Amino acid sequence: MSLTTKRQSIRSLLSEHDPADAPAVYYAFYHPDAKTHLVTHPVGVNRATGYLAISRTGMDLFNPLVSMRLPDEDMDAGRELITRALPVGSSVILYVPARYGPLLHVLFNIEVSEQYRLLVLDRKRFEPIINVLVTQATSPDGLPRFVIRSPQDQSKVAAAAGLNWQTPNFCEISVSTSPGQRRQGWGRSVVAAMVQHQLQNGRTPEYVVGEQNEASLQLAERVGFIDSGERLIFAHATRKNQL
User: Fold this and answer.
1) Can you list the positions of beta strands (E) in 74-156?
2) pLDDT of 79
3) What is the mean pLDDT of the chain?
4) Share of residues in the chain with pLDDT > 90 (%)
């Protein structure tokens, strides 16, 4: 089956308008074709009940990112799908719903793992921030980026907000602030600028934050993000041999 046909077969498993599905929607449907491999379950059917998306990203040149939707209430089918898609010894980055955690620990050696909250913008809570230091730029992949440059050295970026991905309906915002430039509200300023830009382009921004990252969570909440209730596992893992 072609990638187009496989994508069509999993359409019913994801909603393009559900913020909880948005990261999976990106990797299943909008990640570049040449860098995407889909494995569906069952094989060769017009309406699949589960899938794995194996995506090559700039995050790690050697280990692909794996997102998935497993057949509901069918642990054996989920196990079969994963073992068919990823041979023993495969090193991957898992970016999947936390509810799959028990099965993943059976099938993978988990090397590094963190649980994330998926936040979504509440438009009623968002208020634009006017900061003349914020300028718009373009990232190497062509996506928009908003930055504040260091007042001491304009060649250095003090704070920046970019995009991890975007679809027609959603996008995921990332932010970084130089250690010496924190507590000035600059991270919030660049994130707010990105939020406003994306709203003007018809997208609802999302923000993914580690459960223990209180500073990042507070920044997001001050801009207007709220907890979607969805939890994601981000893990470096290797498929293990089951005896």
Assistant:
1) 91-97, 108-121, 134-138, 144-149
2) 94
3) 93
4) 83
**Residue 173 parent element (H or E):** strand 170-177
* pTM for the whole structure: 0.93
Q: Please report, for residues 56, 156, 173, 204, the alpha-carbon distance to residue 182 in angstroms, rounded to integers and kept in the order given.
A: 33, 14, 18, 26
Residues written for the chain = 243
Q: Position of tokens 């496989």? A: 6
Is residue 100 predicted with pLDDT exceeding 80?
Answer: yes
**For the chain, the helix, strand and coil percentages under 3-state DSSP, each to the nearest 5:** 30, 40, 30
Distance CA 150, CA 140 (A): 21
Of 17, 14, 21, residue with least CA distance to 169: 17
Report the alpha-carbon distance of residue 69 to residue 122 in Å, rounded.
Answer: 26
Q: SS3 of 19, please? A: helix
Among 156, 148, 121, which residue's Cα sits nearest to residue 226? 121
What is the C-alpha to C-alpha distance for residues 203 and 17, in angstroms, rounded to an integer? 10
Residue 80 to residue 177: CA distance in whole angstroms: 43
Q: Kind of pairing, strands 170-177 and 204-210?
A: parallel
